[in-house]
Amino acid sequence: MNQTEEQEAIVRHCIKRGELVKINAFAGTGKTSTLEMVARANKHIRFLYLAFNKPVQKEAEERFPKNVTCKTNHGLAFRGFGSQVKGRLVSSLKAKTVMDAYHMKDYWYANYTIQTFQNYLISADLKIQKDHIPHEVEFYYKRELKSESEAAKMINKIIESADQLLHDMYYGGNPAIGCLHDCYLKFYALSEPDLSYYDVVLLDEAQDTNPVMKGIIFNQKNKNVTKIVCGDSHQQIYTWRGAVDFLKKLEGVQYNLTCSFRFDNDIARLANMILAIFKNESLKLKGMRDNSNKEDFNGSKYTYISRTNAEIFKTAASLYQHKAIGFLGGIHGYRFQDILDVYNLKQGRSENIINPFIRNFESFVHLEGYADSVKDFQILSTCSVVKNYDNAIPSLVEKIRTAAVPETDAEILFTTAHKAKGSQWDNVYMAADDFPEIVKNGKIINPDSLPAEEFNLYYVAVTRAKKNLRFPANSSFGQFIKLAEKEKECK
């Protein structure tokens, strides 16, 4: 394997017992390849490579040498804890299931009980507590009950119900309640597992690690277990799944990977602008790809990256008659049914609504008010689409579904920035108007005015392109680039 100087420095590192090695790796810089190089250079060492999901684990098994055991987070816990509940495992838990199992009459109560429970499962906490309750609960119950004291009582009841759910789920106390994979992983974490059979734990994509896994890896009683942690804080876009950015806080031997094999310096320059201005990043990405002979974007197949599913619907509605359109991961992952549901809510046809979350709002106005209060971009965009397309929505949803082709046959492949992470394409069109505005009144916004994850989504979208990146020139992002370049010239 050809190595950059940065990779060579990491591979030459003499691994010591119990130390922490942190690899700060930017987009396309060969994170996994570098870990593979480390393992091949140290064949006398027993490594445990932890993968986020099964496909990543399978790929790692094929490429890593024999001295590396590759497991998913849940695979690590399955033998001792998952196997105990094997016959009751379920992939998800629906509010309707919980309502029926515990004779609940209120959908919201059941839904918030599940969310509280799931927040606990991915936390490092020993017990379910108020911090695990979704932030909108107090807003909802204050609005419905018109009393802070009554809202407080409901919050305590939710904790009690979540505790009951935890007990029944793992120990089988209620036959209607199956066991989530995250539940046996939590019990595994609570057992304080010992990973000292391995000399080194390799943690890839560390920015996506949730607190429960962080606790398993870093709270080892045996201090001789070495940890090599690799990730990119700027690609942390899953805080809503419980991921916590702990990379910057870790103290240990640090290396950087800044040479991207994915794209050239034109794309690297745009990524650097985002990171320097909004994330205060001093390191610079370097594009290593030679794109001198690249084909022009016009007429080529390309991938369309948006911030929301609603934006994908709008664009697909305008293109399905003229282009072969496809959807990364399949069309069902883009929640067009939610658009239909919100349309039916606006029409007062609650009996036609599939999603119980949407069905439980009194009206379209109430849903829109809720989304605005909690700054839910997906719902707000969906409401906007419903208002714009109105009665054309049912037929458009059906026509788009019918027109969708497999990913490999698509002239235009649709995806959101969240789904795009981990992928790359020659040609990318970034629907920059769908992302939060980063220029207002002719000035670049204060970074503190948006959550860091929103700037990370910009960075992820930009760095998916290998050859060509396009976006609306008059978009907020286009204005940002002009202002950033002008600012750089003035300096």
Write a concise synopsis of the structure shown.
The protein is of the alpha/beta class and 491 residues long. 44% of the residues lie in helices and 14% in strands.
Strand numbers in spatial order across the main sheet? 3-2-6-7-1-8
Structural class: alpha/beta
Portion of residues within helices: 40-55%
- Number of helical runs? 20
Terminal residue distance: 40 Å
Biggest β-sheet: count, sense, barrel? 6 strands, parallel
pLDDT averaged residue by residue: 92
Write down the Rg. 24 Å
Number of strands: 17
Strand content: 5-15%
- Low-pLDDT residue spans: none
Throw out a few tags for this protein.
491 residues; alpha/beta; five-stranded parallel beta sheet; 20 helices; 44% helix
